[in-house]
């Protein structure tokens, strides 16, 4: 039995794409799809039937006048009137249904992409330009010509026009079968050629995604508040405009070039249509003049000829359809690919994480990691045991691999070789969700959500985020409670001036909010707390306050603290010094000072600077 894939393999990509767009409709709403199919059929065949009846009515008039018998004409009139009413009544219903289905398709595709992008365990796919291009397309779904919803809205215009033409051509078969055949062969070829051209232009546009993304980046730099300060200070606007212009042209020139051959297809197809029309008219006139056909037959065939010409192949609706035929399959295939990564994971049946893990230690064993497309390892055979319920501080030069270590600990990336274990169980075998609930992280580049303070803290454990008592407790421990209480709407203030009633926070205030988020996750059950440069944006007093409470904050937890500030680091139970993706020194503060190695040297440098400043 051939599968659907076997059948569709031989279809041209434009038709295959279109079928995959249409295939979405019954999934979204069977009822609306049924209404749409019924509406399309009515819009396709009712006008043809009305045309035939009109022909019969006109053709019968001389006979009716001659015999004075008007009953047949009256019935024909009633039937034509009925068909016109049905056609008119279904048109708005069809349009409204298509518009709703179009919105459903846009929403469905965006949701699928959001869901799919979050499916893989790690974040490596977000550094893959092909995935980023597809995400860009999905983002643009509701705003530009790639709008799949618009393609659905175009269906009531396009499909009935095709079917109407087909039915009208069937009528022409009764005039001359070979003429009917010419029409029957010609119009699908015209439609196909035009669709293929639109599809080709759409595919070329899509293939320019990388360059288009670059130009959009320049545009967004000029339009978003974040970089606005630097753009003014460095006087970057002209440079940005010039770069935008260049990259936009580079992206769009191949698209313009591919449009040129379309003209030849367009002239070729319109000439063929003209010729076949002319031939049909000449034959009809000849048949009429020579009395080969009755007046009624000529009237019916003239109506059929008009119907055969009513298909659309050159309008915007066709462009929307072929654009959707390019983009929708790509988006769906990306969503399927990313989702299947999740399925693979489910098939390996992850081991359950014991409730009190880590009980003994988390171990990095000869762990090596290289970022995609990087030319050197960020972690180079890292061996490191993190004892449970103790605090570990990591210091090292810029680029030594400290943040990478945190990312691997959170399973945002998988090691290239070696392994990470939690109480002896490989991290890769544990359920990533359960592990991530066990771990609270304050990243160096933590997210600043333009949401309320309540949401910014509560997102540390979304299932508990309505518990105000817990929120206050977490905020208090992170030193963020005063910041929040002083906001105009307290917990309900939006932390972004881009929204009405919102406020902007300072870097240090943001850091306290982000720390509160991590503390909230700890309250909800996280047993490992990782702080990557938690005090970098705090003033000296706030930093001192935070570290005075550090032991209280981290009591019973397994903590990893990454910092360049030695005043912070020295309080940890154990300190490791990292360089070039490995550990070169390991011990307590006193042991490392005594060893007089790298740590002692860095500590002395910083202490000296502080003394000099004092
Ligand atoms: N997403 C990435 N893709 C490619 N290379 C990366 C990526 N992130 C980091 N690197 C590289 O990996 C190495 C380790 O970076 P990492 O951020 O872990 O250093 P770090 O010790 O945290 O530095 P810092 O003290 O400056 O925060 C660096 O050479 C860096 O350039």
Walk me through the structure:
The chain has 614 residues and is an alpha/beta fold. It contains 23 helices and ten strands. The strands form two sheets. The chain has a six-stranded mixed β-sheet. It has a four-stranded antiparallel β-sheet with strand order 2-1-4-5, with helices on one face. The chain is elongated. Bound molecules: adenosine-5'-triphosphate.
Quick rundown:
With 614 residues, the protein is α/β, with parallel strands linked by helices. It contains 23 helices and 10 strands.
Query: Based on CA inertia axes, which overall geometry fits?
Result: elongated
Largest sheet composition: 6 strands, mixed
User: What level of helicity do the residues show?
Assistant: 55-70%
CATH superfamily of the largest domain: ABC transporter type 1, transmembrane domain
Reported by name, the CATH topology of the largest domain is ABC transporter transmembrane region fold
Bound molecules: adenosine-5'-triphosphate
Overall number of strands? 10
Q: What is the spatial order of strands in the main beta sheet? A: 6-7-8-3-9-10
DSSP strand (E) fraction?
5-15%
The figure for the number of domains is 3
Query: What structural class do you assign from the helix and strand content?
Result: alpha/beta
Calculate the terminal CA-CA distance, rounded to whole Å: 84 Å
How many helices in DSSP terms?
23
Write down the Rg.
Answer: 35 Å
Low-confidence stretches: none
Quote the average pLDDT. Answer: 84
